[in-house]
Design goal:
Blueprint (H helix, E strand, L loop, with lengths): L35 H17 L15 H19 L4 H13 L6 H13 L3 H13 L9 H11 L2 H13 L6 H13 L3 H10 L5 H13 L3 H13 L6 H13 L3 H8 L6 H13 L3 H11 L8 H7 L5 H13 L6 H13 L3 H10 L5 H13 L3 H13 L6 H13 L3 H10 L4 H13 L3 H12 L8 H13 L3 H13 L6 H13 L3 H10 L5 H13 L3 H14 L5 H14 L2 H12 L8 H13 L3 H8 L1
Length: 635
């Protein structure tokens, strides 16, 4: 079957040989409601107007009294807050009422727009946020320093890097980036988009850094696995006279835990007085890296501290539990009156499903009062994971009959099930009946690719291109690159690479790593090395990708050379690193190197007892002819 051509809003005739290092625009202007040049020119004209806008209920920027409907709009916003905390009012309904009232207002103001945009942001209705922003700009009204952080939060949530960069450009033009709150919001945006180059440059540019600035930098480094940089920043912070607060400590400790740095996490935990968030961070961090024993140990220690476990603690520790301990945690939740919490109920259902106790899953669901959409989605996901799509679809109907409307997650869960089960016709049929988002397409593309239907992944990507209002993100790009590699679609892969460069995605560490992996699978190791060398920031996954690329292309000696460079760079090898190299030692019968790797593994606490890795080491000794050593390890 011929591989289809890809249209990704750029000219595919750009020479692939010149892609690496070529100049690229900051954003694809065609996909936003207003071009950057238009924003810049209007911003220049209206700067004084925006700066004069007063955020009081007494008047707007022109000195006129606010329309009463503006006051009513703010009143509805206050009701939203009360309804959110008391769980008595439907937040979506309140936001819709606010929008209807907003549509009646003739003379709209920055506070009016801000009120509605923040309501949509709290409800995570991101499309409405960006739609309102476009309408706001077309009305000649521009965000102020109070609204810019909210807009950046929205860009961060959906990882719209180019939209966020556009807002950054506007903030610079309006001299808003000097405000510490705006500056920290920009740092947080770049961190959540994994764009550490922009984040670091911005951080160095900010003159007055506070504890929030430093905490954001540390957390961002931890999120992409750059543990050493995070720890160095923590030390530098104190040398600069900024004292860490509880949020900084928590970011550091949970970051160590999430990256499998068990000893460091525990050492730093003992350096301050942890609160319940500290314990929750280290427990969930250990769970994320599969260090279940350490997570349960932390939970046990927490019980001896004044801070009592809360619903977040229970949600965090349950994934580490086998059935007997999970039942015990369930009993603890009942004793502490936490079982009525929707998040706890969902986590209990997930734990019982993982342990195969599906009757208990159904029982928790049935006994939970005031079920919300999230809980229905949990039971739907349980049956989707089991391949029981007929039951999952019946639950969608039951959910409607209960008075709740299936949301994006409900339908995306069904899409995931169809893609996982290779039911392409059903998936496309559902896609045509809903209003898909970028998440929907990401699920289809990655789901098809992982289930061996890479051609359908490419087809889904082409369908995505017909939705002019949906913007690609790093997950989309990484997934479609994997599909191109599976299909050996070199031309399409290079077109995607060109798109990456034109839209500044190359600074995203995960996207660049996916490009390295793609070229390695194309047997174009030269291009893979070129992309890798252009990466200013690399993590363990990046190094693993290049090491594996050399192995797959027969450059075995180069693989060990890159491993040594990885160690010199300060990057920590992972389970995958050792699995690649230990297997390579067995194939090459390199006993001395294999023994050195074995010694390295024994010094790595979270790997030395890993059964998968132990079996690989045994296999290596067998292939090297040392049966006795393999038998000792097998005991």
């Amino acid at each position: 079957m011929a591989t289809p051509a890809i249209a990704v809003h750029f000219n595919p005739c750009h020479a692939a040989e010149n892609m690496v290092g070529c100049s690229s625009s900051l954003m694809d202007r065609k996909r936003f409601c207003l071009s950057l040049s238009r924003i810049d020119s209007l911003a220049t004209q209206h700067r004084k107007k925006v700066c004069r806008t007063r955020h009081t209920f007494g008047g707007n920027g022109n000195g006129n009294r606010y329309d009463r409907r503006n006051v009513k709009l703010v009143s509805l916003n206050c009701e939203f807050y009360r309804g959110f905390h008391n769980r008595q009012l439907d937040a979506t309904e309140l936001t819709n009422d606010a929008h209807k009232l907003f549509d009646e207002i003739r003379d709209r103001t920055v506070p009016g727009y801000s009120t509605l945009i923040r309501s949509y942001c709290r409800s995570e209705r991101w499309e409405e946020v960006f739609s309102l922003l476009g309408l706001m700009i077309r009305d000649g009204i521009f965000p102020d320093k109070y609204l810019v952080p909210t807009l950046l939060k929205a860009c961060s949530a959906v990882r719209f890097l180019k939209y966020g960069k556009m807002i950054h450009g506007y903030a610079v033009r309006m001299q808003l980036e000097r405000d510490i709150v705006v500056g920290n919001a920009l740092l947080n945006f770049y961190g959540n988009c994994f764009d550490m180059i922009y984040l670091r440059n911005l951080f160095d540019y900010i003159q007055e850094k506070d504890v929030v600035s430093w905490s954001t930098l540390i957390s961002s480094y931890m999120n992409i696995g750059l543990v050493e940089e995070a720890e160095n920043s923590f030390r530098e912070m104190q040398l600069c006279g900024v004292n860490p607060d509880i949020i900084t400590w928590n970011a550091l400790v949970s970051g160590f835990a999430r990256n499998g740095e068990i000893e460091s996490a525990i050492i730093y935990l003992n350096c301050f007085n942890p609160n319940v968030a500290s314990w929750n961070g280290i427990i969930s961090g250990f769970v994320q890296t599969g260090c279940f024993e350490q997570a349960l140990d932390m939970f046990s220690k927490m019980l001896h501290f004044p801070e009592n476990p809360n619903s977040v603690t229970v949600v965090g520790v349950l994934p580490a539990c086998e059935l007997p301990l999970g039942r015990a945690i369930h009993g603890y939740a009942i004793k502490k009156n936490l079982n009525g919490n929707i998040l706890v109920a969902g986590s209990l259902m997930n734990m019982y499903s993982k342990c195969g106790a599906f009757d208990c899953t159904e029982k928790v669901f049935t006994q939970t009062k005031n079920k919300n959409t999230a809980l229905w989605n949990e039971i739907i996901a349980t049956h989707v994971d089991r391949g029981k799509m007929d039951i999952a679809l019946e639950l969608i109907t039951s959910m409607r009959e209960s008075g709740l409307v299936p949301d994006e997650i409900s339908y995306n869960t069904i899409l995931y099930g169809y893609a996982k089960d290779r039911k392409k016709n059903e998936a496309y049929d559902l896609l045509s009946k809903i209003t898909p988002t970028i998440v929907s397409f990401n699920i289809l593309i990655s789901g098809f690719q992982q289930s061996g239907l890479s051609y359908e992944a490419l087809r889904s990507f082409i369908i995505l291109q017909s939705y002019s209002t949906i913007t690609l993100n790093s997950i989309t790009i990484s997934s479609i690159l994997a599909a191109c590699a599976d299909l050996n679609a070199l031309t399409q892969g290079k077109e995607i690479h060109a798109y990456i460069l034109r839209n500044c995605y190359e600074s995203n560490i995960f996207v660049s790593t996916a490009v390295v992996d793609m070229y390695s699978k194309f047997s174009d190791i030269t291009s893979a090395i070129k992309v890798f060398n252009s990466m200013k920031i690399r993590n363990t996954v990046s190094w693993n990708s290049l090491i594996n690329g050399h192995v797959k292309n027969g450059n075995r000696e180069e693989a060990f050379k890159v491993f040594n460079e990885m160690l010199d760079d300060g990057s920590e090898p992972s389970l995958i690193t050792f699995m690649i190299l230990v297997s390579l030692c067995g194939e090459m019968t390199e006993l001395s190197v294999g023994r050195s790797l074995h010694g390295f593994i024994l010094k790595t606490q979270n790997l030395r007892n890993n059964r998968q890795l132990v079996n690989a080491v045994i296999d290596m000794y067998v292939k090297c002819g040392y049966i006795s050593e393999s038998m000792i390890l097998g005991l």
